[in-house]
Amino acid sequence: MYIDPEITFRKIEIFLAFMEHKTLTGAAEALGISTVSVPRHCARWKTR
User: Fold this and answer.
1) Cα gap 39→45, rounded to integer Å
2) What is the value of pTM for the model shown?
């Protein structure tokens, strides 16, 4: 099994917040970060 080293706990936390809140704004507010930061953290993820 391959684990991408670019996937960090922080990126997983941001992704889960986005899935829970359904919006970039909701995820950002829940995590106390800017709305722009949410997609930046997840931009490099892709389906393998």
Assistant:
1) 10
2) 0.76
Decide if 37 is inside a domain.
yes
Question: pLDDT tens digits for 21-43?
Answer: 999 999 999 999 999 988 887 77
Does 47 map to a domain? no
Within a domain: residue 14? yes
Cα–Cα distances (Å) from 21 to 17, 36, 37, 40, in that order, read 6, 16, 15, 17
Rounded Cα distance between 24 and 16, Å, is: 11
Number of compact structural domains in the chain: 1
User: pLDDT: is 11 or 26 the higher one?
Assistant: 26
